[in-house]
Amino acid sequence: VEVVTAYRRYQAALTPLGMTIDELRLSPRRAWRLRLDSGMQIALGREQTNVRLARFVAFYPRVFAAPTVANTADVPVATAPPAHPVTVDLRYPDGFAVQMPRGVSPFKLSSS
């Protein structure tokens, strides 16, 4: 029941990004990990998983999607559409770590 409830909650959060969960794991240490249909792995950890996933959902389009409208807010956006991450680690209190595909250069951010 816990896994089904978590799946529904996490999938609802990711749906606006067009992402689908292929696999949801709960480790013996009670840490959550997702694998998406794109192959991307997301480490949520054990605590504040909803807050962490919401932070990812809020920032993902700004960082990993091509800008489609003028950036009126002073928020960095990707200057070119980069490759999607292989792994995203959301277990940090104020951000997240990303592993990009091998050979992909880090992208530059711009506030315009």
Gist of the model:
This protein is of the alpha+beta class and 112 residues long. The protein has a single domain, classed as 3-Layer(aba) Sandwich (Rossmann fold). Helix content is 26%, strand content 23%.
The portion of residues forming beta strands comes to 15-25%
Oligomer: single chain
Count of DSSP H/I helices: 2
Strand count, sense and barrel status of the largest sheet are: 5 strands, mixed
Distance between the termini: 46 Å
Calculate the mean pLDDT score and round it: 84
Question: What is the CATH topology assignment?
Answer: Rossmann fold
Q: How many strands?
A: 7
CATH superfamily: Cell division protein FtsQ/DivIB
Helix content class: 25-40%
Low-confidence stretches: none
Topology, pairings included?
Layout: H1 2-14, E1 21-26, E2 32-36, E3 41-45, H2 49-64, E4 77-78, E5 87-89, E6 97-99, E7 109-110
Parallel strand pairs: 3-5
Antiparallel strand pairs: 1-2, 2-3, 4-7, 5-6
Helix pairs in contact: 1-2
Can you describe what's shown?
The protein is α+β, with helices and mostly antiparallel strands. The protein has a single domain (2-110), classed as 3-Layer(aba) Sandwich (Rossmann fold), CATH 3.40.50. It has helices spanning 2-14, 49-64, and strands at residues 21-26, 32-36, 41-45, 77-78, 87-89, 97-99, 109-110. The strands form two sheets. It has a five-stranded mixed sheet, with helices on one face. The chain has a two-stranded antiparallel ribbon with strand order 4-7. Helix 1 (2-14) packs parallel to helix 2. The termini are far apart.
